[in-house]
Amino acid sequence: MTPEQVDVVDRTLAALRAPDAFAADFYRRLFAAAPGLRPLFPPSLEEQQRKFAAMLVEIAAGIREHDDFLERCADLGARHAGYGVRVEHYEIVGDALLAALAGAPGVHWDDEVQEAWQAAYALISDVMMGAQSAALPVSSTGQPSRPS
Ligand code: HEM
């Protein structure tokens, strides 16, 4: 990401007036695009929406502090290995995320902003996917399965 793109991402997040409404819109778009993902999440999404928006803001705000950012993304990715998430889900999530951001009240969206967010999501999801693939596979009992 260029320093200008980091600034653009910062500005989008600062302009986001209603993070909860944005997160609700994101999950609506995600499940409309991929209904099969809904069972991976708890029945009530209220808590999840809050956590997702807060984590996104925290991670994106930390892009400037490179080491902390990488560690945070890697930890989050490793945890996602236990949620039934597969690497091919990241693209669907990225599309829903950018569409929700583009439509969020207060957010200015144009080609430059879109490119900056594509770069930011690519960075975040690459580190998450790398850590997720490295994490132990989870068996159908939900327990990590170690090679015997
Ligand atoms: C920018 C990328 C993402 C961010 C910031 C993010 C954020 C979060 C956060 C903060 C949690 C709460 C638990 C925790 O902190 O470990 C969570 C849980 C979860 N996420 Fe993500 N996530 C991302 C990508 C994805 C993707 C690609 C999927 C694929 C479907 C996904 C599916 C889930 C599921 C199923 C849970 C567990 C819900 C539960 O059982 O409570 N996430 N995510």
Automatic annotation (TrEMBL):
Keywords: Heme, Iron, Metal-binding, Oxygen transport, Transport. Residues 1-133 form the Globin domain. The keyword Heme applies. The keyword Hydrolase does not apply. It comes from the Bacteria. Pfam families: Globin. GO terms for molecular function: FAD binding; heme binding; metal ion binding; nitric oxide dioxygenase NAD(P)H activity; oxygen binding; oxygen carrier activity. One of its GO terms (biological process) is cellular response to nitrosative stress. Belongs to the globin family. PANTHER family: FLAVOHEMOPROTEIN. This is Hemoglobin-like flavoprotein. It comes from Motilibacter peucedani.
